[in-house]
Amino acid sequence: MALKKKKLAAIDMGSNSFHLLMAEVSMTGFFPKPRVLTRHKQKVRLADGLNAANTIDDDAAKRACQCLSGFAAELEQFQPDAVTVVATAALRKASNQIPLLEQFESALGHPIQVITGEQEAELIYSGVCSVSQCANDVLVIDIGGASTEVIAGHGLIPKYLQSLDMGCVVFQNRYFKGGVMSEPAFAQAKREATTLIEPFLNDYRQHNWQRVLGASGTFRAVSEIAHAESQPTLTREWLNELIQRCAQKGTVDALDFPGLREDRKAVLAGGLAILAGITEALNIEEFEVTYGALREGLLAQLANEVTA
């Protein structure tokens, strides 16, 4: 007798955080939708280990292996029927990618696929649509640790996407060294973000989105601060005020905004600068936060594969 349900596991080895989702999916019905049973997240900051030669250092590799060993123990207990594991921008960039993959696969006990920026953007869009209403034209932005994906889509279909070479960890290390924040540093970081998206502005402007949805950590941090401060709408104006307040604080250690989690302080400035640059370049006045991201897209893809 065929199984009525299958156990699935999806691992997203992001440039800032690693995520493990464990779920089950029904083998009956026309539209298989996985039900998440457990979520695990760990700040690994793989992109923190990238040096000028794009080599990921031993400390970052050790953090990754420790996290993956923990995930392996979770998988051993869960006994999934199917597992999918992807790595994103930090490993895409890494000049020592091959030896690192050997270490990481040994720690996890499963093969790891390093996906392209385009694949990452498509999975992010799928993940956002799996939890948010994407009925009409939408713009999805995901600021990761070492790359930022911007996707214009209609309904469930991504129409135009780019994976841009900027992320909150990379920008934090580049412009806010030693945790020092200043208005000139924010201005410089924001300019670079604008410059990186500028070549694609005409392509994006052909898509008349009705909603802008932000995925992943920077957006969640902004949303949590706004909620704690009773800010009803996420606007570009309020975002720029928040940046000014960060600059006035002067250092990462001095950040004490209501709603700001301790584990987000270290990369907040880098993420805010990227978000400010993108919203200005694309003339975005308001945006929302979604709790879908690459990992949900990965899980949805795996569910489709096992139930096909």
Description of the structure:
The protein has 308 residues and is α/β, with parallel strands linked by helices. It has 2 domains: 124 residues, ATPase, nucleotide binding domain (Nucleotidyltransferase, domain 5, 2-Layer Sandwich); 157 residues, Nucleotidyltransferase, domain 5. Helix content is 45%, strand content 22%. The two termini are 18 Å apart. The model has no long low-confidence stretch (mean pLDDT 94). This is Phosphatase. It holds the Pfam family Ppx-GppA. InterPro entries: ATPase_NBD (IPR043129), GppA/Ppx_hydrolase (IPR050273), Ppx_GppA_N (IPR003695).
What are the key terms here?
single chain, 308 residues, alpha/beta, Nucleotidyltransferase, domain 5, 2 domains, 6-stranded mixed beta sheet, 5-stranded mixed beta sheet, 11 helices
Q: Describe the main β-sheet briefly.
A: 6 strands, mixed
Give the terminus-to-terminus CA distance.
18 Å
What is the top-level CATH class of the largest domain? Answer: Alpha Beta
CATH architecture of the largest domain: 2-Layer Sandwich
What is the number of helical segments per DSSP (H or I, 4+ residues)? 11
Please bin the fraction of helical residues.
40-55%
**Remind me, CATH topology of the largest domain?**
Nucleotidyltransferase, domain 5
How many structural domains does the protein architecture include? 2
Q: Largest beta sheet: what is the strand line-up?
A: 8-7-6-9-11-10
Shape: globular
> How many beta strands in the DSSP annotation?
11
Structural class: alpha/beta
Q: Radius of gyration over alpha carbons?
A: 19 Å
Mean pLDDT: 94
